[in-house]
Amino acid sequence: MSRLIHSRLSPSRFFNTLGSIRRGRYLSTESNKIDEPLKVEEAEPVNAPPPPVEKLLVLGGNGFVGSHICKEALDRGLSVASLSRSGKSSIQEPWASKVNWHQGDLLSGDSWKEALGGVTSVISCVGGFGSNTYMYKINGTANINAVRAAAEKGIKRFVYISASDFGVVNYLLQGYYDGKRATETELLTRFPYGHVILRPGFIYGTRRVGSMKLPLGVIGSPLEMIMQYAKPLNQVPVVGPLLTPPVDVKAVAKVAVRGATDPVFPPGIVDVYGLRRYSKQKTF
Ligand SMILES: NC(=O)c1ccc[n+]([C@@H]2O[C@H](COP(=O)([O-])OP(=O)(O)OC[C@H]3O[C@@H](n4cnc5c(N)ncnc54)[C@H](OP(=O)(O)O)[C@@H]3O)[C@@H](O)[C@H]2O)c1
Question: Pocket of ligand 1, candidates 143, 199, 203, 247: which has the most ligand atoms within 8 Å of its Cβ, to mutate?
Answer without folding.
Answer: 203
